[in-house]
Fold these 3 entries.
Entry 1:
Amino acid sequence: MHTYKNKTQQASQTIDSQGPAWAAMNPESVVRMQLQNRFNTGLDIAKYTAQIMREDMASYDKDPANYTQSLGCWHGFIGQQKMISIKKHFGTTRSRYLYLSGWMVAAMRSEFGPLPDQSMHEKTSVPALIEELYTFLKQADARELQHLFKEMDEAREAGDQVREQAAQQKIDDFETHVVPIIADIDAGFGNEEATYLLAKKMIEAGACCIQIENQVSDVKQCGHQDGKVTVPHEDFLAKINAVRYAFLELGVDDGVIVARTDSLGAGLTQKIPVSQTAGDLAEQYNAFIDGEEVTSLEQMKSGDMAIKLGERLIKPTRLANGLVRFKPNTGEDRVVLDCITSLQNGADLLWIETEKPHIGQIAAIVNRIRDVMPNAKLVYNNSPSFNWTLNFRQQVFDAWLEEGKDVSQYQREKLMSQDYDGSVLADEADERIRSFQKDAAAQAGIFHHLITLPTYHTAALSTDNLAKDYFGELGMLGYVREVQRKEIRQGLACVKHQDMSGSNIGDDHKEYFSGEQALKASGKDNTMNQFAV
């Protein structure tokens, strides 16, 4: 391990070797700048975080209590504040990641303005957000280390060697805010070459984990909306291969691929793949196609097509736009085939997009997958598109009804009502929501829990509350009471927003570069001194 002390000695030797021309260089200042910029490139980050994810996956395989979590972030500052908060409250970032949601990129980061989740946003906005997130996380490192350097300098000036050593130990033991990002590449934004090119950009920006879904790229829909169309397995596997090649080309050998299936809610296919041999993937995919058995050419009209499925000739059910319908109630079987096939062909983790957060439903599917692939693990969307309150109250209602308990005081279709808050049923439902991640990790193979777009909702909610108060009767008290006073009392570092934005880091750099003549922003007249945080 390179300690602060021996790194300073190395820097001193490098500077001394250059003679008088480098006399203005302070070795300790060099080391501080190096430590504040631990990762020189996005690839450095991707390699570092890929190893973390692999270790976490192995840890989960040993004990499902070791599941991981993330929240979706639409801006670098949001991701930064999340990780600063995690370090403050829990002491470590271990097992906590960031999630980059294609939904939020479309809704909040496109030059077209707000867009639906249909892959209409600029593909370059995805790697740009990855780079932005890591820029803010690296700045969080620099800021926290700058405070530790100041703590050490103050101890030196006071002649307090014990305190100085303690500060130096904190610097040596410093844990970075840089964590894995699970990054959404949607359906690949085009053909497999387009997927490869975008995956490269994402990896170069720092992504160690790329999530790709089996929808048709040019008609991609949000997983919680209707009209989803899936691709044959051969097409999806080509894109998984494209992502893996991108990882390997860039030297991120343990990069992670999440294969997402939307088949549970997708009833259509755009292509009918060509079967080469009996029982191959194409034939298995086509077996799910809905259609009318053809026993006579009289059944065929102009433009109709027919395919042979086993010993039967089928006229597929086609919509006016040419899309082909799957048989009803085959979604779960298609999901199982999708997942097994993806894991057998290079994917590392699975994502099954469900219509509700029901552990029994998820576990039933995962158990079927694990019959073939015992180490199958899920990334699961704890989606804001679910009405969690209503879903879990109805789950409790149904369970109690099945157990023969008296539910006469509850109306199932009205369980969302505030009238039920505080009832025994509502409390039981809340407890199930509280333990959902732990229980689903243990019972349903979920390695990673994420919420895709929580900070979209928190931004809207906090802004609504501030606007209501500030522009209403409370005026400035609306901001002071509900924002600033809480920031101070909860110890939020961003109450000193100048420091958070890098002002003190800049002062240090000016002093390194200009010495005593540096014009610094800090000092007695800086109003940030009013804050104790």
Entry 2:
Amino acid sequence: MNSILYIFLPCKKVYPIGITYLADFLHRRKPEVRQRILDLSLYPVKQRSQAIRDAAAAFKPDLVCFSWRDIQIFSPHEGDSSLEHAFNFYFASNPLKRIVASIEGVKQLYRYYSHIYTILSYPWLIRKEFPKAQIMIGGGAFTAFADQLIEKLPEGTIGLLGEGEDAILKVIEGRSIEDERYIVREGKHIRKGTQGSPALLDALTVDLPYLTSIFPQYREYEGEAIGVQTKRGCPYDCAFCLYPYIEGKRVRYRPPEMVVKDISQHYRQWGTRRFWFTDAQFITGREAYPQCTEILERIVSERLEIEWSGYIRTSLITPEVAKLMVRSGVGDLEVAITSGSQDVLNNLHMGFKLDRLYDGCRYLAEAGFKGKVILNYSLNSPKETEETLLQSVEAYKIVASILGEERVFPLMFFLGIQPNTDLEQRLLEEGYLSAGYNPLMLTPNSIRKLLYNPAPLNKIIAKACLRAWERKDGSRDPRQWSGSLSQNAGRAGQYADSNLVRGIERNSGRDALLSLEEILKSRKSSQDRSIAENTSVSTPVH
């Protein structure tokens, strides 16, 4: 095989970093192989099929590699209107709101299925019009739902689970991929492979001039946040997370000088000033401090005036790391607090202590951190009680007191049940989910289950959320979000995740938490009064 066409399947506009690393990996080992990158996210829906035809006809690829990044089975955070419609449908007391929500829900289900079927049509287009080309498909979405999706793809399509560098190289060279993570359908038979050892990242780099030559659409990302990977793998066991399944639990590090070389290339050649570290966690543990510290020190020493962000556990931030983060240009952050109850966190295997999370926020504040923080909550997680919900409200107040209320934006999430996670296995064992269920099949009943918000707390939480979402006065902080959480800093309202920013701008998460506190304390007062009255009635008078 002498040519590869990479097709980044449509999702929200985000820099296709996985494909860029793949292309560079192959180029360094097989410079004679021609490569081309096509980003379908940059085309209107009606033009995408023709864009594939044109690219394949002009390039004549021997191998077509599709990258499927996202399948949103159901948006579990408040920024997406689908969550508000679902809550109105299931919990609203006003029948008119329930009718409106049901109509909107049907529209969203149509868009959901239409999007999946449309994406599945692209490999079939290649099979029909370019039958000699070998088809491969990978990416986070495919890895998560490979068992369901492989049935819908052309026979013989090679599905890659997790990383693809070594597997694609072997296919190009005509070697067996039996010791790689793959899935193939041959008639009614499904065949899978098991990876012997994951790829090392010592030589993972980006040759930006070469990348520019094979990615004609690169100009669409000039001035926007660019993803940079510093490591792969996640050592944690968070019950709901797919990262360990996709990337493995063994953490593999890229040399800091290579990471900063990537940043420097984009900085000097594309004029990039905003970066997002795409790791599962930028600081994966104490063993990651040397690498992370050297990366930030090199950014400072090379005088790269950038703004960067990523997923960071503030529980792992030390005073020294905090100072270095601020000096190197850390921007706005997302912090997955999940719950304000240590018992709930322990049950989810989150692997951090709340006191440490608060300490990290304190160290950032002392170091002069001026960014904003999204504080992600997953309400009604397993083992949740009314008391633990009140603890979550208190946790928000603690973080807000440390960083300043104007800089802390709680965002209400709900656990989405995903295949190949500990949470899914638990719920199967408990009978909450039925064996053989299809995680991609959405119905009113399955949505209610897959968006984890079980009784008896579901109605209380829904009441608080709906009360907050109905307020349309917007955020208490009118300043525009900056940094890696926004995709086009110069244009208000244009963000890497337009749904996410909806919840931020309205600051409805704060209202939801405070409404929840009000409801729970009112319930507790009523219960206390009832107990007191019953005690008074039953106590004999002497």
Entry 3:
Amino acid sequence: MSFLDGKFHSKWTKLTFCFLFLLPLLYPFLLKPGEQLYSDHLGKFILGESVGRNGFLSGTLVLPSKSLDPEGNYCPTECIRIGEELISPFPAALGYVYAVFLPWSGIVGVYVAVAILILLSFLLLSILWDWDPIYLGVLVLASPFLVNGYFFPDVGISSFLFLWGSFLFLRSGPSSSLLRFVSAGFICASSAWFRIESIVFPLSFIFFLSIYNFPNIEERRKIIGYSLGFFVGLGLLLGIQYVLYGHPLGPRFSFNQPTMFLLPWKKWNIYVGLLIANPNRIGFFGYTPAFLIVLFFFIYYIFFKKNPFRRNEVLGISNRDLFVYSGLAAFLALVISAPNDGIIDFGSRYLHLSLPAFAGMFLILIENIGEKFRKIGKIVLFTILLYSVYVSFSYTQILGKYGRKTTKLNAIYLEQKPDLVVVQIRTYSQILGKYFFQTPSVWLMREGNIKNFFSKNSPEQFKKILFVQTKASILESLNESDPFLKNKYYESITQALGPDFKKVWSENKEDVLIFSMERK
């Protein structure tokens, strides 16, 4: 259906689409790129800067603290040792994207480019769903598709590649060339360079296409072409990662795999955090409860209304609907194998590529509500969606406030001008922000780490050292009037540095205790 000639020709519908398409371009102002350099985001920046400093020849991390910590025991960002190299668990391909933009546009260019890719993703999905404003509205306003894609550039790039490849396949005609289907599969496989779990979605799509459409000779040609392109792209990815990292699924898989192979009944905390919530994050259905109804409907629908094994006649199911079914099936597979992301992070990032499928299944649910309950059913569903719109708004606000908070930490670093920064929790290396490569930084978690590090690196080489201690480790014994009293971490620091170092500045913040030790 054409946007200009279809039933959605009204002025208000056009304005709605314009608003939804412009939202990604507003996010660089709502979540300013310069304020997002903390935690995982800082780790991706470090990877990108390292790729650039290595002349695009290696993803080995370039750390200012390397001479102080050659074995990487106290790496201030997430890192994995492979042989003699320290590498990031984040996708190397993402590091190359950062490295392209950083020299001429800084971190702003990365996020603006990703925002444009999200806008293009909206365009592709709108065409596939015949410019249905309900579909796009649910995806943009009532799901984390936009905020996840922008906030996590690897997610945004991966989803665009998957949707681009899927679009090429779904919009092909009877006369389309085999090369188009091969290209579609290869592009879908390329999304795994940025998010390894995206492999599951094309695999699930191929499975559903084969189950429902393989007997059709015309569809068989398309399926074989798409499968060929996908498996060639997948083989290239797995082969290169095996050569570089010794594992076909790469460093991120190695980083997460200890929890991936737990028995399902031992992963209850992971499932709860991934799907509902945990103390720090909201989960997939915690964000969009309506999608839980959609999931139950899908299970009923696929087994009782569209089950290919229960009838002999050819089922009239479009490839677009098969794309939807496969996305929800991939969702279930990913949940079962979920790594520790469910405990430590926002669940929908890991399950991001299933969001377009959930939005599509939502429309199928609306269409299948019985005539008797159609009006009340729609009212209930759209009322629940209003809650998710509120969550989208609130989540964006929370991220913006946290970003501004980290910028204030950057200012402390500039005021203190230390020769070394020591953080007790890696997350707080964010105090360096974009200045990370100017000053050595190390992660010293426990008192023993402090003793060991300074026994190998004489304190005499430093004039001033800035320490960032998490208050979570001293809450029980914390004396608000004097947070250094009975503070074992601080005591181990004074012992390791010796009497020549004195505390010259401190700030007792909400979650951290920051202080500078200066040599006389």
